[in-house]
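Hey,
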Amino acid sequence: MECLDCLCLNILKCEEVISLARPVKCPVCETSGDREGMKLEEKSKRYYHDKCYEQYKIKQEETKIENEQWNKLYQYIVGLHDLLLLPKGNIMRLKELRAGFEIKDGKRVRKYRTGPDYELMLDAYKLADSSIRWCIANTLKGSNDVRAINYCISIMMNSLNEAFARRKNRLRQQEEIRQDLGNQNNLYIETEVVYKAKNKNNNDISNFL
């Protein structure tokens, strides 16, 4: 019985060695490599080259942010139109817009080189909020079908340029603040260094005159 157990253990060890020796394909670059020189991603149990793994993590973080932005936009729209679920036709239009396309006469037409992200769409919605709510109440008579929602999406799109300009201005202001803070920190550090250097000779009071 012990010999049988030993035999089974040896077989398992051999299978493990064979498995470790077998090359694996990196999901990013799709080239095979020795798993001992690659990084194992615990959740997916897949192996990546070091540089490919960095790309994978960056892409993963971008996807996470994209999903969070989409969820905020989605919740805003269903709240705006008093819905539980957004119709598939409207979801498709927003997804195509994100990719830089518009749907015209059932065909995909390139509208932007790079489509606006979902956060920018939400900003545009908020800029046009009062106009959209007026249209829902007066023009659409409270309708919240695919056509009515598409009508409001078109109103939102008219505010995309303004939303983009505001974002650029906000980012510029944030960068200026960062630079000002950086300059102040550098000035403080330089002042400290100069001050300490001047205090080398305690008998010389000319630095304070």
